[in-house]
Design brief:
With 382 residues, the chain is α/β, with parallel strands linked by helices. Helix content is 44%, strand content 15%. Helix 1 links the parallel strand 1 and strand 2. Helix 4 packs parallel to helix 5, helix 6 runs antiparallel to helix 13 and helix 9 crosses helix 13. The protein binds NADPH dihydro-nicotinamide-adenine-dinucleotide phosphate. The site of NADPH dihydro-nicotinamide-adenine-dinucleotide phosphate has 27 residues, from helix 1, helix 6 and helix 9.
Length: 382
């Protein structure tokens, strides 16, 4: 088997660092070819010294000199700036691009990687939420496979491997986040610290808040539509607090397939890089006797308004998912900076959906403009 050279967009984040752990554990199969960060120069430098990649990019140009000087005794090429992210994924030596940047910032370099015919291991769900139709079209034109890293979508993907039959339903599991079982009233005075405490997963700050509002599950419903080509009414959510069943597929004969495992992102990351193979590893094994109660319940659409917002955006289509994504990014950032209350997150997103112009068949430029306008509008309300 050929060694795969991996570019990690966002190597300093939660998914990025876990991808490097997978690479480190498989030195005969994977090489870290490109590493990138936004502002975290120290960790990028440390990673570059350890993994000796071909190139690194620091998106924040003001830190170029710091990174360049720190790596002057190495062969690592150092670039800076947003544009460099899109260029570096096109390098001849790159085989697969792991998109582990958080948010809309992942869209442009992902498009660039697809156009350069690189395989995509997709963690950055916002890319598909904003521009799923365009991404699918580009993948088809360039014969590029898009393998999901998100644990639910990896589970569905694994259930569908080798399965020629029609899907009846996709059932996404949700942990329910830290506020499962609460009423909307009880969420009035939620603090940042409470919202950042996810019961089962350790993740970056933005997705952790998205899990607390359940916008994460809403974004995942939209992500699933584009990954698996199903109709909107074929995607269901079931709350499963133990996060052991990672998602299910129901077929037209009523049979349901599920993928199970301990909650550890390294498995879906490894699978996205090993596919179609499975590689041996020493990850802890699931012992069913440790989980005598696997439970399932309906999501609470009254408490978690973001679920309604996301389903509505899915049904409206056009640039509506891009609007809710941009407004959500601004609102979550404001919440993380103590500028708004927890329940203001869905309120701000709803205001954006009512105020930004709807475009039924958006082009790439429409997505860009929608994102810019929505950010500006949402910020003006804070
Ligand atoms: P983190 O916040 O932990 O990491 C984000 C990474 O992206 C960092 O390397 C960061 O650099 C970089 N980055 C952030 N903003 C920019 C920007 N504007 N330009 C360039 N680089 C940028 O996020 P996660 O790893 O948690 O999540 C990454 C993606 O994966 C998200 O889309 C998330 O929804 C998805 N995902 C994550 C899961 C998880 O378990 N964490 C599970 C499933 C999906 P720096 O360190 O310098 O800030």
């Amino acid at each position: 088997m050929d060694i795969k050279n991996i570019a990690i967009l966002g190597s300093t984040g939660s998914i990025g660092t876990q991808t490097l752990e997978v690479i480190k554990a498989n030195p005969d199969k994977l090489i870290a070819e490109v590493l990138t960060s936004n502002t975290n120069a120290d960790l990028l430098i440390k990673q570059a010294k350890e993994f000796n990649p071909n190139a690194v990019v620091i998106a924040d140009e003001t830190q170029y000199n710091k990174v360049k000087e720190a790596l002057q005794d190495t062969d690592v090429k150092v670039y800076a700036g947003e544009e460099a992210l899109s260029q570096v994924v096109q390098m001849n030596t790159v085989h697969t691009v792991v998109t582990a940047i958080v948010g809309y910032a992942g869209l442009k370099p992902t498009i660039s990687a697809i156009k350069a015919k690189k395989k995509i291991a997709l963690a950055n769900k916002e890319t598909l939420v904003v521009a799923g139709e365009l991404i699918n079209q580009l993948c088809e034109e360039n014969s590029v496979p898009l393998i999901p890293i998100d644990s639910e979508h990896s589970a569905i993907f694994q259930c569908l491997v080798g399965e020629p039959n029609k899907v009846d339903k996709i059932i996404l599991t949700a942990s329910g986040g830290p506020f499962r079982g609460k009423t909307k009233d009880e969420l009035q005075n939620i603090t940042k610290a409470q919202a950042l405490k996810h019961p089962n997963w350790s993740m970056g700050a933005k997705i952790t808040i998205d899990s607390a509002t359940m916008m994460n599950k809403g974004l995942e419903v939209i992500e699933a539509k584009w990954l698996f080509g199903v109709e909107n009414n074929q995607i269901d959510i079931v709350v499963h607090p133990q996060s052991i069943v990672h998602s299910m597929v129901q077929f037209t004969d009523s049979s349901v397939k599920a993928q199970l495992g301990l909650p550890d992102m390294k498995l879906p990351i490894q699978y996205a890089l090993s596919f179609p193979d499975r590689w041996d590893n020493n990850f802890p094994r699931l012992n069913f006797a440790d989980y005598p109660n696997l439970t399932f319940e309906k999501p609470n659409f009254d408490t978690f308004q973001c679920l309604n917002i996301a389903y509505k955006a899915l049904n409206d289509g056009g640039n509506m998912p891009a609007i809710i994504n941009a407004a959500n990014e601004i609102a979550v950032d404001a919440f993380l900076h103590d500028k708004i209350k927890f329940l203001a997150i869905p309120e701000l997103i709803e205001k954006a959906t009512a105020n930004i112009s709807f475009i039924e068949n958006p082009t790439y430029n429409d997505y860009v403009n929608t994102d810019t306008e929505t950010r500006k509008f949402t910020k003006s309300l804070i």
